[in-house]
Design brief:
Blueprint (H helix, E strand, L loop, with lengths): L1 E7 L7 H11 L1 E7 L22 H15 L7 H11 L4 E6 L5 H5 L1 H8 L3 E5 L10 H12 L4 E4 L3 H13 L5 E3 L5 H6 L7 E4 L8 H11 L4 E2 L9 H9 L5 H15 L5
Parallel strand pairs: 1-2, 2-3, 3-4, 4-5, 5-6, 6-7, 7-8
Bound molecules: zinc ion (ZN).
The site of zinc ion has 5 residues, from strand 1.
Length: 270
């Protein structure tokens, strides 16, 4: 069984039927779902890059994403509400993460309320789409609310500079639980000397991440800190399962990465 720790309510996960089909096809037990940018359900596959990518290519992609995001036309309604409607119909399958833009005063003022209304099990932050800073007061306020509600924070980090700020932040806020998207900044994390007990890394990405990168992260941080995510609809689930399978890990390690670590972070068995 697989728990997908990172997915957007778009493409293959945009309707009750498509989510059910995916769950049956890939033996998914839980799908951690947040909205898609501006609640667009039929997102286009991103263009492939004309150069060989590595994990650090994410920083360049982020700059492009930030520009592209500004040019998306209108908002298509409340994405958190959209995910909630899916979850209500698939309560066994869908786990909702609340999308919060820390720079949106309405989001921040209503955060406690939204956590309760949507019964959110975590918070999703995206620095390429919402250009907040890790050393800003908004981020600190948000993390305090999440932590007091015992919610993990999934974060897509923008740049090396922001990774370094996040490391400082973690040192000062050791109780906050973070899931770092796309194995971003693992080199900086591993050199930091910071206590990473509450830090997890998600494996999602297509070409940018290779099996070797995942292997190295497992060796560096321990398999209990690596969680399987797909970033659907931005990357192929087949390719990402295949990448894990080809590492020839023990069943125990695979079970942790595919499912047990996520269940633990999400406190699903409590
Ligand atoms: Zn995402």
């Amino acid at each position: 069984m697989i728990t997908d720790i990172h997915a957007h309510a778009a493409g293959d996960y945009s309707t009750v039927d498509s989510i059910k089909n995916m769950a049956a096809k890939y033996d998914l037990e839980k799908i951690v779902l947040c909205t898609s940018p501006k609640n667009i359900q039929n997102l286009q596959t991103p263009p492939s890059m004309p150069f060989k990518q590595k994990p650090d290519s994410i920083y360049l992609m982020n700059r492009m994403n930030r520009l592209a995001y500004k040019h998306f036309l209108k908002d298509n309604g409340d994405g958190n509400q959209y995910v909630f409607e899916l979850r209500k119909q698939l309560p066994e399958l869908v786990v909702q993460f609340l999308w919060v833009n820390p720079l949106d005063v309405g989001h921040m003022d209503n955060m406690e309320n939204s956590i309760r209304t949507y019964q959110a099990r975590g918070i999703k932050l995206h620095q390429a789409w919402n250009p907040f800073k890790i050393d800003g007061i908004e981020f600190k306020n948000l993390v305090d609310i999440a932590t007091s509600n015992q919610l993990p924070i999934f974060i897509h980090v923008y740049s090396k500079k922001e990774v370094l700020k996040l490391l400082r932040f973690i040192r000062e806020n050791p109780n906050a639980v973070f899931i770092i998207g796309h194995l971003t900044g693992t080199d900086l994390f591993s050199e930091s000397g910071v206590n990473l007990e509450n830090i997890y890394f998600d494996t999602s990405s297509s070409k940018r991440i290779q099996g070797d990168d995942i292997k190295r992260a497992i060796d560096t941080f321990g398999y209990e800190h690596i969680v399987f995510g797909t970033d659907t609809p931005y990357a192929s689930i087949d390719e990402q399962i295949d990448r894990i399978e080809r590492l020839n890990m023990s069943d125990n390690i695979k079970e942790h990465i595919y499912s047990l670590n996520a269940r633990n972070i999400l406190a699903l068995d409590k």
